[in-house]
Target: WD40/YVTN repeat-like-containing domain
Amino acid sequence: MTFTSDHALFYALGSRVVEADARMASDSRVVDANAPLGGWAVRVFESNADVVNGLDVDVSGRCLAACDDSGEIVVYDARTGAVVKRLRGHDGCATAVAFRRKRGAESELLTTATDCRAMKWDHRAKTVPVRTWDARSVRSARDHDRAHSGAADESSDDGGQRMFNPPMLHSVSAFEGETCAENAPGARRVACAACGDGTIMVFDADLKAVASSSGKKLSSASSKAPGGAFRDGRAECVRLGEDGVGGHANAATCAGFVPWLPRGDIIVSGGADRRLIAWNWVSVSTPGDFVDDPSARASGVVADLPLNRKINDLAFVRDSRRIVVVDTGPKVTFIDFTE
Model:
């Protein structure tokens, strides 16, 4: 579900996407999601072949993207409902899609799926992904620390408190806050995905390649790349919670950047472990050289709030600086969030 203006609402209904006029709803009335065109529903998009799991509208409001259980992403003309492009590349159910808000990259979108992969696409140029990140093999900042120091992998030493599921990706989000001098370097380049193994994968969507295991660079990294973990090109991502100590004890189901914090450095995630966690991903990436001792890298957790039910999704209300949490129960929870 996504809003594109004060009243235009898009939501998934089975294999369809409905554009609705929120002005037809009120606090005192429950709106029928199956209402016919002419009332609450303004337009219906019906070209997805299977159940739609995620959708997003680009910054111009002209394109709608919807991903479904078949693994396909359908890009529509949001004004007419016509299909602009069909994107195929995922081997599992496509779980989420997000258009980028970076200037010059308005036609690019990010997707995630149960095949454990995140993909970047340019729907104006190609029908195949521009770049792929596989959560099962992607090289993280902590991986580099271990290789650099020769330390053994101790991430599984968690006292049995954490469940290790496959890192299927359940959500994807890009930083959508206002750009300013206080932004973490390259904040518009960064995206995050919630993983089934309980971690949050933070990656630079504009990084084309990383260094080989020998340390030889395969590509030059821009000085605008976010954080030390990406800037020198030796890591593809930062994995929040991969140390097995902090973070989620079960699958992470959703994650997003807090849009009203000017540095773009805080991510909030929800999980099947009934917890809402706030992370400072920049503190984990370390602005500078990699650390010699992997255990010295910060966990990044700045707040941890236990809730009563498994969390399905979250959203941010900028004006009131609140987080909206949807869980497995019948209620929607609003949580105040300030620095």
Observations:
- The chain has two domains: 1-132, 135-339.
- Confidence is low (pLDDT under 50) at residues 26-30, 155-162, 212-223, 287-296.
- The first strand starts at residue 2 and ends at 3.
